[in-house]
Amino acid sequence: MLNLIWLFFFFSAFAAATYQWLFFNNPEVFSKIIEATFSMASLSVEIMLGLIGILCFWLGLFRIAEESGVIKILAKSMSPLLERLMPEVPANHPAFGSITTNLAANMLGLDNAATPMGLKAMRDLQTINTSSVNASNAQILFLVLNTSAVTILPITIFMYRAQQGASDPGSVFIPILLATSVSTFVGLFIVSIIQKINLLDKVILFYFSLFLSVIAMLISYLYFLPADQLAESSAHLGNFLLFTLIVFFLFTGWRKRINVYESFIDGAKEGFDVAIKIIPYLVAMLVGIGVFRASGILEGLLYLFESCVSWLGLDVSFVPALPTAILRPFSGSGSRAMMIETMNTYGVDSFPALIAATIQGSTETTFYVLAIYFGSVGIKNARHAIGCGLAADFAGITAAIVLGYWFFI
Questions:
Q1: Phi, psi angles (nearest 5°) of residue 134
Q2: Residues 294-299, mean pLDDT to the nearest whole number
Q3: What integer best gives the mean pLDDT of the chain?
C-alpha cells in the first residue's frame, strides 16, 4: 500500500504538471516541483535534527523508568484493557507501559513528548512481531489510536489563536474535544471490525466509562474558566503534569538506588540510533507529499469540491477551511500553515478560521506518523493501517465541520 501511495504522489504530480504545461502554457510548474523535492528533503533532515535531542532525552528517561519498575506499574494498570484490544501482546508486557504514557501525552497535547514515547512503544511491539516487515495487529491499532488520538488540551492551537488576536482563544476547545473523540472512536471501531475485537467486553466498557468521566470532569472545570484564562490554564496544567512525570521518573530511579545518570545515557544512545534510522522513511514521505502539493492538485481538488457543494445547493462557508483538511493527513506543518493563512485572510474569529482550527485539532498527521513509527522498526507493509487511519481522519474532519456549524453559526 505504501508503495502504491508513494508512486501515486509522483505519477499524479507529473500528469497534472504536464497538463498545465500543454493546455495552460505553464512550464514553471516543473520548477516548483523540483524545488519542492529539494526543500522537502532538507526539511526532513531539519525535522530529524530537531527530534534527535527530544528522542535522546525521553528515551533516556524511559530507560530510568524501566529499570526502576515504573513502566511495569503503568503496564499493569492498563493491562486489562490493552490485553483485550491487543490479545497477541503478552500480559504485563513493557509495551503496555509505553503505550499508556504515549496516549496520555497525546491527550495533553504534548507532541514533543508523545513522539519519543510512541517510538518506544512501537519498538516494544516489534519485539513480539513475528514478521520483520509486516505490521502486526497491535502495531496497527496503536498507530490508528495515534493518528486519531483524543486531544484533551490542544495547547498549540490556543496559542496560535491568541497570537492572531482571537477574542476567545479557547472557544474551539469543546468542538476540538468532541471532533477528536469522534475520530478516535471511528478509528477504533473500524480496526475492531477488521481484527475482530469485541468492544462490548465489560472490561473495555469499564475503561471507556472511566475515560469519559475524566473528560467530563475536565470539561466542567475548563468550560467555566474565563476566556482569557482557558489557554493559559491548559498550558500550565500540561507543563506541570509533564515536568511532574520527569521528576517522578528521576525520583523513583534514585529511590531504587539506580545510577540514573548512566541509565539515562544508555537510553539516550538508543534514541540517537532510532532517529538516524527514521530519516530515509521521512525523506521519502515528505518529498512525495511536497511534489503532490507543488503540482497544484490540491488546489484543483478544492475547486472541484466547492463547485460540487455549490451545485448541490449547500452552504459553502466552510470551504475556505478545506485546505487545512486536505493537508492534515499529509503534513502537520502544511496544515498548520494553512490554518494560520485562513486566520490571516478571513480573520481569526471568522467562521472559516474557527473551522480550520477545529480541523487542525481533530486528528493527527497520518502519513507522517506512519513514516516515523513504522520506519523506526523497518515495517514496510502497513496492511490496513493506512485505510483505518484515513477513515478516522475523515470522520474527525467531518465532525469538525458539523460541530463548527453547531457551535459557531
A1: -100, 135
A2: 82
A3: 83
